[in-house]
Design brief:
The complex is a heterodimer.
Chain A lengths: L1 H32 L1
Chain B lengths: L22 H23 L3 H27 L5 H20 L8 H22 L5 H26 L2 H20 L19 H28 L5 H35 L3 H11 L1 H20 L7 H26 L4 H21 L1
The chains are: A mainly alpha, B mainly alpha.
Amino acid sequence: MLTILTTAIMIVVAVWESVSLRTRAEAQSEAISA
Amino acid sequence: MTDNPRGAMFRLLVPNQHNRVTYAELFFDLVFVYAVTQISHTLLGRFTPLGAIQVTLLFLAVWWVWVYTTWITNWLNPELTPVRILLFLLMLGGLVLSTSIPTAFEGRGLWFASAYAAMQVGRTVFWLASIPPDRTLVRWNAIRILVWLSASAVFWILGGFAQGQSRLVLWTTALAIEYVSPAVRFWIPRYGPSTVEEWSVEGGHMAERSAGFIIIALGEAVVVNGATFADLTWTVETVSAFVSAFLGSIAMWWIYFHKGAEAGSELISKSSESGRLARLSYTYLHLPIVAGIIVSAVADELVLKHPNGTSDLRTISTAIGGPLLFLIGTILFKFSIRGFLQLSHGVGIVVLVILAWFARVCRR
C-alpha cells in the first residue's frame, strides 16, 4: 500500500512537470510571436 | 596525435561537437553496476542506524571514485591504449573495492581503503604525467588535486588499519577532505585555489556520462524487482508490488530524462563555465539522485518479499526515503540548470514528508 502511494506521487510529479513545461514553452513561443 | 595542442593523451576538442562516450568507458561502468548491487545488498543486510551511516559512507566513496574518473576521461582520450590500460587498472581496483563493500567495516577494511586510495591517487598521477609542460595552469590544477587526494589517502589507509569506531571516524575525515576539496577549488597553502577555467570540460560528454550512472542505478532497481519477483509465488499482492515497483522506476526515469537531462546537456555544452556547472550539477547534485534510486531499489525488494508488512521501519524509511532523496536531488539539479524550482517536485517532497509523518504516527 505504501509503495503504491509513493509510486502514485512520483507519477503525478512526472506528469505535472511534463504538462507545466509544455505550457511554459507554449506561453514563451506565443510571447515571442506577439 | 602530436598535433593536439592540449596534449597527446587528451581528447581533441572540435567546436560545436560533442565528444562521444567511448566503449572503454561503458566497459569500465560494468564494475560500478556490481558496486551499486553491493551497496544495496549491504544496506539491506545491515539496516541499523550505524549500518546506514556505514553504507552511506561506502556509497559516497563509490560515487566519488566514479565521478572523478568521469572528469579524467572527459579530458583524456579513452580511444588511446595508455588511457584504456588506465581504465582497465581502475576496473581492477573497482572490483577489489566492490567485493570489499559488505565487509569493509570488518575484515576487508584495508582492502577497501587501499583500492580506493590507489584508484584516486594513481589516476591523478597518470593525468598529471599526461599534461604537457606548457599547460602550466592545468598542471597546477592536477598538482592541487593530487595534494588533496594524497592527504585523504593517508586517512583511508589509517582507517583500514583501525577497527570499529576509529575506522568510521578516519574514513569520515577522508571523505570530508575529498568532498570539500572541489568546493574550495583545491586550495593549497602558498599557491591558493585553482580557477574554474582550469576545470573546463566538454559538457555534452559530462552530461551523458552522468545520465549513464542514473541508468546503472535504475538498472539495479529493475534487476532487483525482476530477480525478487521470480522467486515468489505470484499472488495479487506480489503482482501489485511488482507492477508498482516497475512503475516507480519508470516515473524516476521520466522525471530525470524527460527534458531535464537534455536541458542540462544543452546548458553545460554552451556554458563558458562548464567546469563550475560540472562540479555543482553533475558532481554534487547527482549524488542524492543516485542515492534515491538505490534506496528505492532496497524498498522494492523489501516490499516484494513482504507485500503486506508495510509497517516495519525498514520498509517505511526506504519506500519514502528513496523517492524523497531522488526528488530533492532532481529539484536541485534542475534548479541549477533552469534557474527556477520545479513546483511539481516541491509539492512531491512536501507530500512525501507528510506521508512519512503519517506512517510514523500509524506505527505507534
